[in-house]
């Protein structure tokens, strides 16, 4: 499924990490290419420099020492809500429990996304990451700008996509997936540009010939790609574990 995108994912998220500042950043890192980014802390591991995006050790970006131009301490930021690490989309103010049945079960949503992914040749984990960023899985979410539903379709866009009711999860997902598919085709499978256009509109991406210099859009793109990478790694790890379990002998020594 769009394997051309998958090949550059981890490189892409490194470049975009400079655009999304973690809430608990304690260090400012200047890269040799001029980018600046913030991280919680850093450490040298096996000849590489790891920049940890949180207090733990699981979420990090790795560079060669020559790629780091400098590191300086920054004051601790004031406390922020736990949800601040997620992209600040307009729909984030929507209450997932605002109406009965607004939150689909994970299984129902996964099945819906898988069907749409098959129809449009999109990875289900990419669609799941976008839904999480847009609405948190709330089928009744409405943004301040008027975007609606799981994939936050604007009324005009929904109409163009043939979506009659954006609050119907299956219609919304079908329309949002078709829209993302069209954007990926328009930008030659460059995921970062397609996501930027999904958030800020194709006109903004075309105007700046790249990701627009909007803080929200840059944070959104980086967050969705990071979430997609996380889901793909978890999926691959689970697949390896399943294969290993199947190959392991049982208590009687049989395979």
Strand order of the largest sheet: 2-1-6
Straight-line N-to-C gap:
33 Å
Instruction: Please state the structural category.
Output: alpha+beta
CATH topology of the domain at 85-247: Lysozyme
The main pleated sheet reads as: 3 strands, antiparallel
On the 0 to 100 scale, the average pLDDT is: 79
Radius of gyration: 20 Å
Number of helices: 9
Task: Please count the beta strands (DSSP E, at least 2 residues each).
Answer: 6
From the spread of the alpha carbons, the general shape counts as flat
- What share of the residues does DSSP label as strand, in percent? 5-15%
Oligomeric state as shown: single chain
Low-pLDDT ranges = 3-25, 76-85, 88-102
**CATH architecture descriptor of the domain at 85-247:** Orthogonal Bundle
Helicity, as a percent range: 40-55%
CATH class of the domain at 85-247: Mainly Alpha
Order of helices and strands: HHEEEEEEHHHHHHH
Question: How would you characterize the overall build of this protein?
Answer:
This protein has 255 residues and is α+β, with helices and mostly antiparallel strands. The longest helix is centred in the C-terminal third of the chain and has 33 residues, at 215-247. The protein is flat and about 55 Å long. β1 and β2 form a beta hairpin. Helices cover 44% and strands 11% of the residues. It has a domain at 85-247: Lysozyme. The strands form 2 sheets. Strands 2-1-6 form a 3-stranded antiparallel beta sheet, with no helix packed on it. The protein has helices at 3-6, 9-17, 106-120, 124-134, 155-160, 169-186, 191-200, 202-208, 215-247; strands spanning 27-31, 36-39, 41-45, 48-52, 60-63, 68-73.
